[in-house]
Amino acid sequence: MTDTESTRFQDFYRKEASIYHGRRYETRYGRLFRELHHSLLSEMLQDVPATHPALEIACGTGHTSSLLAREGISFIACDLTPHMLAEARDRMERADHPTSFLYTDAQALPFPDATFNLVVTTRFLHLFPAAEQRIVLSEAARVLKPGGSLIVDFDNWTSRWIFSLPLLVYNLLRYRRAAPYSIYNRIGVTRRMLDEVGISPESVQGIGGPHLIVLDWIFHSLALRIGDMHRCLPLRVLAEQFMVLGKRR
């Protein structure tokens, strides 16, 4: 990452840090997505043996960190933005989950090759075009031990275009802009990219979707059930994101 890009990210998230968690995980849809996201993450972690030590790349304000701690995983959490790290540290201390936090660039991790049995990065890769995604994924693969696991998610290209019109209306009403900045990935292309950096994808499952808020207004439990059905085809094409569990070759 160039110095200019690093400064841009730090400036943006310094302003966002104090409101980031509330905007993304405390709205009605945010709470629904959080449950669906944590549920899938938790299930994937059950399929990952010998997860210590672990690394979380781009921990943000601690959304995924809190789940890793509850699962009893010993891990290091890193991020490029000190203000986001401070929010995550406060969240983990309030939950009585002591965690090691490290300020670092995801594209140049300060760890030797084959250090970790598990690397997790969520709600992060959508910030980067494919070439930079590849750099982050290459670094994640480099610090993984052979046979180690990577869990990573991406914004879903198919869903973005199926719901392009309602998403446009939503963003204009909520954010007064056409769309937030995001890179959308195709599943097939992403599988190939992971394979090229040394990660063999084992599972690809969908997560969430703003359209589920309609069901949540009726019954929360119904929204969760239908949301779980978005993990697999055919409803996976409607999911907001897809999550990949892969193994380092």
End-to-end Cα distance? 26 Å
Number of strands: 8
Q: Could you state the CATH homologous superfamily?
A: Vaccinia Virus protein VP39
Instruction: Figure out the total of helices.
Output: 10
Rg, Å, rounded: 17 Å
**Number of structural domains:** 1
The top-level CATH class is Alpha Beta
Q: Main sheet, how many strands, which sense, barrel?
A: 8 strands, mixed
Mean pLDDT across the residues is 91
Strand residue content? 15-25%
- Might you state the CATH topology name? Rossmann fold
Entry keywords:
eight-stranded mixed sheet, 8 strands, 249 residues, alpha/beta, single chain, Rossmann fold, 10 helices
Task: Give a quick rundown of the structure.
It contains ten helices and eight strands. It has 249 residues and is of the alpha/beta class.
Task: Characterize the structure shown.
By secondary structure, this protein is of the alpha/beta class. The chain has one domain: 3-Layer(aba) Sandwich (Rossmann fold), CATH 3.40.50.150. It is built from ten helices and eight strands. It has helices spanning 3-25, 28-46, 63-70, 82-94, 130-143, 157-162, 164-175, 187-196, 213-218, 220-229, and strands spanning 54-57, 75-79, 100-103, 116-121, 144-156, 184-185, 199-207, 241-248. Strands 1, 2, 3, 4, 5, 6, 7 and 8 form an eight-stranded mixed beta sheet that branches. It is globular and about 50 Å long. The mean pLDDT is 91.
